[in-house]
Amino acid sequence: MKKTSLLLSLLTLFVFSFLNASALDKEQMVKEWERAKAYTKLYLETMPDDGYDFKPSPDIRSFAQQLLHLADANYNFAALASGIKSPVERGASEKSEDKSKAATTKMVLDSYDFVINALKGMTDEQMKEMVKFGNRGDMSKEMVFAKAFEHQTHHRGQTTIYIRMKGIKPPNEMLF
Fold it and tell me: What are the phi and psi torsion angles at 140 (to 5°)?
């Protein structure tokens, strides 16, 4: 029994050490968000002006709506994690009347700046603090930023097919 308890304790210690070692520090997260912003900017530049209202199917978001939804979420996630009030009202980007290439590009890139600046203003200790994440319970601020990153990746990725359906080659992957 003692051997089992000792083995279980060592295994638990190893797992927690691995998780802490593999977690991104704040500076790495900032670099990843800066890369994601540059990658999303390429998507915004690649789609021609007349493609911003394009929908592959009538029942889904347009190209602009996908990216403006991404922007709204960037603001919401970063505001929750950082405690900084979002400069954009909840859902306002996607509901905006002007969904032109210029307006969409500005709103989306501004949302990345908000996330990046929120991250830069936080300490490593603050990143470990817990916040209430809706009905999903408590979550570390670091995890909120990770969920935001996953969300923006998902929606940017969805727009690849929009670009392809317009007969255009989408930007190459920017994994690094």
Answer: -65, 150
* Listed residue (82, 80, 100) closest to 108, CA to CA: 100
- Four-point Cα dihedral 164, 168, 169, 173, nearest 10: -70
Residue 111 to residue 45: CA distance in whole angstroms:
16
**CB contact at 8 A, 148 and 56:** no
pLDDT at 176: 86
Grouping H, G, I as helix, E, B as strand and the rest as coil, residue 7 is helix
Structural domains of the chain, with CATH: 25-165 (1.20.120.450)
| Ranges of the chain whose pLDDT falls below 70 | 1-23
Cα 141 versus chain centre, distance: 13
